[in-house]
Write the structure tokens for this entry.
Amino acid sequence: MAWRIGVDIGGTFTDVAMVEEATGRIAVAKLLTTPPDFGQGVLDGLRQGMAANGIAADAVTLLSHATTVVTNALLEHRGATAAFVSTRGFRDILELRRSARADLYDLFQDGPSVLIPRRRRFEITERIDAQGQVVTPLAEAEVPALVEAIRASGAETVGVSLLFSFLNDAHERRLGEMLRAAFPGLRVFLSCEVLPEIREYERASTTAVCAYVGPLLEGYLARLQAATGALGLPPLHVMGSGGGVLDVAECLRMPAAIVESGPAAGVVAAALVGRQLGLPNILSFDMGGTTAKASIIADGEVTVTADYEVGGGVNGKRFIAGTGHPIRVPVVDLAEVSAGGGSIAWVDPGGALKVGPHSAGAMPGPAAYGRGGTWPTVTDADILLGYLDGGALLDGRLALDRAAAERAVAMHVAGPLGLTVQAAASRIVEVVNANMCDALRIVSIERGHDPREFSLMTFGGAGPVHAAFLAEELQVPEVVVPPAPGAFSALGLVATDLRRDFARTLYAPLDTVPPGRVADAVAAMEAEGLAMLDAAGVAAERRVLIRQADCRYGRQAYELTVPMQDGPVTARTLRALAAAFYAKHAQTYGHANETEAVQMVNLRLTALGRQPGLALAQASRPGAAREGRRTAWFDGAPHPTRILWREGLAPGAAIAGPAVIEALDSTTVVPPGWAARVAEHGMLRLRREG
């Protein structure tokens, strides 16, 4: 039998998901994450999962991985010693940034850290104007001195971003050629290769991010690929931020493309399950150990944005614009809050209860894990409320110390607030639920969608515990708990396609631009996309090219991305593009002026190598059925609650709340007034009774 394997590293757990291609049967291995050597957890999980399920290395057809290496390097400021080269007079572009401020009224706020300090930022004489014409030729005579300065700086990598190179890249490519000849052992990132798009600062920032994290990513992937190769596994693929996997060579060419690697995989898996169940509109909700992430799937399409900041600050509810490093690469549109099972509860000096942003992580973890943690977390509160039990998680291999959880909550929350331990635990859950509702509102209501028209698909180790409470608050009619929710992001890794995104600036009004000019730009990008698919060995029948365009009104500063029709590019194609923009503008902002001309800014192309389809399923094992009872707390009161084991539930079984449905990787809570049903493919579907 052929198997696909996905490995996802989370803040607390490393998940390995194995799917048999012919049947969709799922197997899961889950173990604690192993900082600082995250690769060790990957290898341990692979060995454990393959051995437990009798999977031979030569039966694995796809090995995909989601990594936080890029994000962690930026958050922890431990990237490479990088150099940066700009047009003379633009040395400080990374420091000047945009004029936007994170806090308009804070006169003493510090700007974000600069990845490449001024002493390693260099200039070269050249100039291309805003029409792409050469004003000042490239001063090649300056290159030897530039090379010596870079060498003396100790740089391990170089980023180059020259003015208007997205219109005319001749100078940048010539300089790159000379630098690569001078430094054959270093990676040189050119902005015309990384991001040939308008907006000088964002292009420079994306190039600098690639240069800063490139060597660290290269070392990590080289070690991991060598180790998995030694196990006899196929070449490694890595999840990209836009919802598709890349081979290692593509990752190293564009390291910024894998910033939101793990969260994107979960949204892809949610879209897959939605197609299986015939649910086109889904709110995707992923609550892990450190954060909770929400995204939206409308009409079956994952929402992707090209505006993203990595390493930004958090105000407890969302990332603050202007506090991170912008990267202009397609990223699954996520709202992320510091609300996970490991989020720490604390009381501020004013007596207000807070949850997060700090997390206990994998080490020491929640107090109940018995690994040295003394601060109360959301997981500790869930244990005290009767939602979690030590006999279920990791099939009993993760023993939970209820007494330690009680001591932590009593000392840090119940005592300072004058509450009982149970009341304090209830308050902790109420606060974290409110924070997570904010994330769901951001991706739904603030994007022009009504959550009452969506189903909430919940996953992550802690997601199914809290999902029904969130659905009730937002009036979402249904909660879907997919198979293996605790390892669902890892499942997304095996269900996604090979993907690479291309972009090119074409700045022109849609009503006057010659269709042939647009057609030429599209053809050039399609040639690049097909070359990538050729190199990856993707068969012709599995290749898909998707066109899009960034459009705006002429007086707007930012764009909306809208789909573009296939086939020959004609005047009719451009009229349809304008109509799509009007519709998207009306949905996003509540209005559209169809008498005003539309301006195209960028063309985009997504090249996909389709994977053979999968139907995820969780089989029932009647022999695994078991049932018990314990007291759980809802709305501040104790309730006798049924405890069921998910694997033993028969298809069609109905469970009235209050109930707790336990599994090896995650626990589902069915509150009073709700009912759960075991639907097709072993999915759990929760609805409010009546």
